[in-house]
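Posting this for the archive.
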Amino acid sequence: MDLEKRINAFIELGKRIYNLPENDLQNWILLAKANNNWFTEVNIRTALQGIIEILKPKNLESWISKYSILNKPPKKVGVVMAGNIPGVGFHDLLCVLISGNILYAKLSSDDSILLKKIADILIDIEPQFKDHIHFVDRLNDMDAVIATGSDNTANYFHYYFSKIPHIIRQNRTSCAILNGEEGAEDLERLGTDILLYFGLGCRNVSKLFLPLQFNFDNFFRSVELKKHLIDNHKYYNNYDYNKSVFLVNQIPHLDNGFLLLRESVDFFSPISVVYYEYYNDLHDVQEKLDIHKDKIQAIVSNINKIPGTIPFGEAQFPSVNDYADGVDTISFLTSIK
């Protein structure tokens, strides 16, 4: 199967997902929700829409045209997939298959439904993919590996896969830099960056850099549309627990009834909590970002002086060439000896 066939198959996949009959989509949603209570209908639909956007012809063709993908014997590529948000492993699936390699995917138990459903459609479109897609429990005798996990599991992955080419991804999070001039729409979109997928993704904003005298009232008014999250029992349990910890330990914090804000120099906040830190000078912020760059996935801001930022509301909607941890997956896959 040549590259053109693979590209056309994925373009058709995007169309099939977009036109998926509502009954089939509801079946996907019910199965995924039963498997993982964090996977709400809204979040599943949002994740699928992100996949559809990636697979639009102009996006897919523009992306892959930048690479020289030769017709050569395929390599066996193992992928240890995360399961924090719906279908989060799709980009790796896309990269492995469109580069002409064979996928051996070890799915997370938290997201074991959606990618299998998507793979079934892809195989129906192009039956030759059947021999290139394998869902497995263990990765043995691979030519290369892409593994996503926590900082602890990353140490294991580095050891276990040390003798073959690999990409090992560790814990990352995202932050936002505000200047106090943001309007209600900006702050509402920031609320999406923080709370979409309940804040479980590495692209969710968990840390705010704020100017002195920042107006929290405007922020809380703008994120009020997200208050329905408290109706999810898993999110509520996290909120209730963290609030109790703050109260018992007399830790100063802000609380709007579904989201807690606490001043901290740390980047990684618990679910339902956002850390914030004041700054006097943007140079100080940039210095801190440089120090912690290996832990930051995305930076959200309207401030042009900070390089590499993305607009409010776009943290959880990466383009197809926005690689996790900044590592070009296609370049890695095409360089396997």
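The chain has a mean pLDDT of 96. The first strand starts at residue 76 and ends at 80.
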